[in-house]
Amino acid sequence: MNQPPQTAALSNISASGTGQVPSVGVVIPCYCESANILAVLAAIPADISRIYCVDDGCPQSTGEHIERHTKDERITVIYHERNQGVGAAMRSGYRAALADAMDLIVKLDGDGQMDPAEIQDLLAPLLSNDADYAKGNRFYRLDGLTSMPLTRLFGNVVLSFVSKLSTGYWQLFDPNNGFTAIDARVLELVPLDDIDDGYFFEADMLFRLNTLRAVVVDVPMRARYGDEKSSIRLPRVTMVFAVKHTINFFKRLTYNYLLRGFSVASVEWIAGPLALGFGLVFGVSQWMQSVETGVAATAGTVMLASLPMIIGMQMLLSAIHFDIGNEPRVPLRRMFSGRGQHAPGKPPDPA
Hints:
Helix content is 45%, strand content 11%. The protein has helices at 37-43, 62-69, 86-99, 119-127, 150-167, 184-187, 201-211, 234-259, 264-293, 299-325, 332-336, and strands spanning 24-30, 50-56, 75-80, 104-107, 133-137, 180-183, 216-220. The radius of gyration is 24 Å and the shape is elongated.
């Protein structure tokens, strides 16, 4: 295998202002990627310290394929005896990178849809202490969307809006983008055992990062689509994602607005739905009674139904407005400066 190409050296920017060159590990979950993985590995910049390829019970034996056809000493192949999902593969890769004391850890897919040359762009917000976690955004450059399959385009738009509610990151888009980078000290705070095993992994990571108050940013990237085939079954995944996003939404509200802190928004999240629900139920019941008896509802009855709905809706809108403004702004990386690789005590994690 040819030597990986040289790119802008990481030594141009020191890690956390310490003057030391950060070590970067790249984790690649591998499942049926034998057709593209060698080209992906060959394109990874030379200043990347380690590469972890996780063969997730691949029927094509992608791990063995890598070991037979590469001589890059940076590569470590991790094997799962059975397929456990991309989340489980990333969990193994993350732990291996943490064990090797990597400073920054990148997730890169093995299907060739992500350009390894853009790893430098992905790392930039972390190296400048502006973010704890960076992710790609394929929707920033509209000219590149023409190559995206229509079903993926529609599905990603819908999931992006739903994800804003469940994760609390209202300014992000393309939540299931798998091109990501994270500070290892922040990753140590993430309860990896609780992260979803499957394709919900990226969205679940965002939910967990929000509960840690980590700063997450989008980085524009170009998506490259070829003849690769996705193993995602949209109808099934859509229903599963809807349920999991709903669960995470209520978990996040409970953790951020009841357990971690209490504010006016906490009251609004509780009282708003109760008032809106009471107004709807009472109004519908009175309307049905009027239809059955033929007697019009009084003005007082109409007000008793409509006023709680108006107040409840206003409370919900106010709570959402507060939640948008409550998005994390100060990176955890800044708190780690001068503390070496030891992160502060781990906060309580929502179940």
